[in-house]
């Protein structure tokens, strides 16, 4: 496990590199956009998949998000990390896509499919614990699931999450409190120690 200092240094290097990429993208540099796309596509896809749960809609939201990054890269003002800006766009696009649905359709097979970026070996080694956690996450509301996903899987702090979701930091804290309480109740036993 990397030390806190090592993670902080890596995060700072990523931030500086992201700023360089977005500056090049705003100048129309296709290679910079492709590099950013490759870096963020897997995490963005996982994030959106936790919100919309429809494969065609996931691809549409991710592609729409990346199109905004390409077309509006020059509007990124550096007030937050680039990843926060991008995830905020994805969140708003996903929420709009969900509102456009005529009726909610539950994807009952989502917990049986491997994540989109896993190798066959990784997919075959997923444990029962992962399945239980996925089921518990699916039982959360969209807002609670978003807070948990951004905190634990994308390592965003509450201020960044508030920026993504367009709400006060205290609202993020409250959502996390209720999400963790719900997950502990659902998971029980040793798995409850994870949250």
Textual characterization of the structure:
The chain has 195 residues and is mainly α. Helix content is 71%, strand content 0%. The chain has helices at residues 4-26, 30-52, 55-72, 82-100, 120-124, 128-138, 142-153, 158-165, 169-187. Helix 2 crosses helix 4 (82-100) and helix 3 packs across helix 4. The longest helix is centred in the first third of the chain and has 23 residues, at 4-26. It is globular, with a radius of gyration of 17 Å. The model has no long low-confidence stretch (mean pLDDT 81).
Largest sheet: none
> Number of DSSP strands?
0
Q: Rg from C-alpha positions?
A: 17 Å
> What pattern of helices and strands is seen along the backbone?
HHHHHHHHH
Q: Give the helix tally.
A: 9
Keyword list:
195 residues, 71% helix, globular, single chain, mainly alpha
Task: Reconstruct the topology from this structure.
Elements: H1 4-26, H2 30-52, H3 55-72, H4 82-100, H5 120-124, H6 128-138, H7 142-153, H8 158-165, H9 169-187
Helix pairs in contact: 1-2, 2-3, 2-4, 2-7, 3-4, 4-8, 6-9, 7-9, 8-9
Summarize the structure.
The protein has 195 residues and is mainly alpha-helical. The protein has 9 helices and no strands.
